[in-house]
Amino acid sequence: MDPVDVEVVMSVVVPDLDAYYGSFTSEREKEALGVPLRLVAAWSKNDADGVADQFTEDGVMILPGDVFKQGREEIRSFMAAAYAGPFKGTGVTGAPVDVRFVSDEVALLRTHGGILAPGETEIAPELAVRSTWVLVKQDGEWKLAGYQNSPRGAGATLRW
Going by DSSP bridges, is the β-strand pair 141-151/55-63 parallel, antiparallel, or unpaired? Predict the structure, then answer.
């Protein structure tokens, strides 16, 4: 994480990294959890490039509302349009609830979080999500191969 991102994460997005990491305190876990931290930092600046750069070249992003984007360029384009429209001025936040290493180069993360409306510090129930992150280590750096989130809690819309 470059110094600008650390500053943003520490001062605005995640003022207490120890609290963010919770029980995931090994250096390996913290390294993998750097991906959501970098994504949150990029989102806080509404930086489509910064968000897309967290993905592998062929990474996949799946969001509610039938959003399926594959590849860094598709993700970058989608996020740029979103930041010019419905996500303008928004942030995201979340906390890890599960970190698993499938191998030395594959990690599965689960987080609970959501979108922060402009100026808000708490997630509105309708914007709360449960996210799954599939990370791969490429050239010594963790990247997102796949990301998917679903509504959770009061915001969940699936009806049985």
Answer: parallel
